[in-house]
């Protein structure tokens, strides 16, 4: 089994990981249909990682698809110049100088219910600012896509010090194992659910798989001008076929899109839907030569946990199609510059409740009368709170915003402002009562301001500011105090579910 080396920027990776499910599914369908032993053996040869303890391969399970942003192969060698040029991903000299990294710029967590029914996937935006889990090294917070590279770099540095003669191949394998373990643990901590299996692919692997499939069909909401960083462009809106190089550019583009990286997650989701549709309708599953080619690429470029029995798994997933696979994007609270980086502020408790209720829906019970606190919290939802940090604590504006969202308020703008000695709370028309409640959390008084929009409260954090205690109790991640399911946001930058028409969703 090939090993993992150093990578850089891979957004197409998620699409790749999804390919794992698809091409493996294709292989098993053929195996079940009576194809010869070598096909089954080829499927069994996919795997290679011992980074996590695998869960069951049959029944309900959670699978993490990881796309590694890499301009190197699994042994850490820089990709050939011809490949780098096709990938539109720096040249060899630039890669040697540090272009790219080892970030998991694509993370999609998919829940497969028992019996292989309707599956749901949540994309995790790569800029979500989180606490890392099981991550080596001194850095323990950052964007979620950094957990892999931080741990990988720390592990390789440790190994070099212990054994300077260690081969590059072994060094890359050990480093990537540390990165995988850290990524899985961090995703588990953020979402509150256990990851049973993972599938990982790098930039080169995505390109090779797209070539085997002969490209992919996509649908765009509007024409796309040429993007210099990804190399993608589209002269017209609507359905269109992309070759392998264009497909990679399609899932990597973020500049010039209305919602940046969040729109890119929608493209990755649409790509997966389209590939599954193609496998089911274009005769790929009946073409032994093409299946063998897919398996050959999967063996070389796809990494999965070694305890995942793909043959057993695909047996229950042979009917997977875009009609019974729904993709969503985990919500963000807002944007903030943290440690000099543009980041997404998230509310882990809210995320955990959403994931829990979507993956493991509770049996419906008669609705109880709303409590006074629940009614008060519902009333908060009419007010939007903007939070700006003028104090000395980095990231406090995002934390305060997340706490207020837990209390039922709408998240507004998050950012920094000039230094303030004392916290100020301002409000626009219609928000007086809520502003007073919020101000009391900081032991200050609220003041009306004509510069604040109607229905908005503006919190300007001063040097004396600290994270306030949450007002009404927030329902736990496993149950709702009112018995009602948590509202899954369908508006905002992360958008709602990506819905496919004829198997192929239209996206920005």
Question: Can you describe what's shown?
Answer:
The structure is a single chain. The protein is an alpha/beta fold and 508 residues long. A 7-stranded mixed β-sheet has the order 1-10-7-2-3-4-11, with helices on both faces. Helix 5 runs antiparallel to helix 6 and helix 7 packs antiparallel against helix 10. It is globular, with a radius of gyration of 24 Å. The two termini are 37 Å apart.
Q: Which characteristics define this entry?
A:
508 residues, alpha/beta, five-stranded mixed beta sheet, 15 helices, disordered N terminus
Compact description:
This protein has 508 residues and is α/β, with parallel strands linked by helices. 37% of the residues lie in helices and 19% in strands.
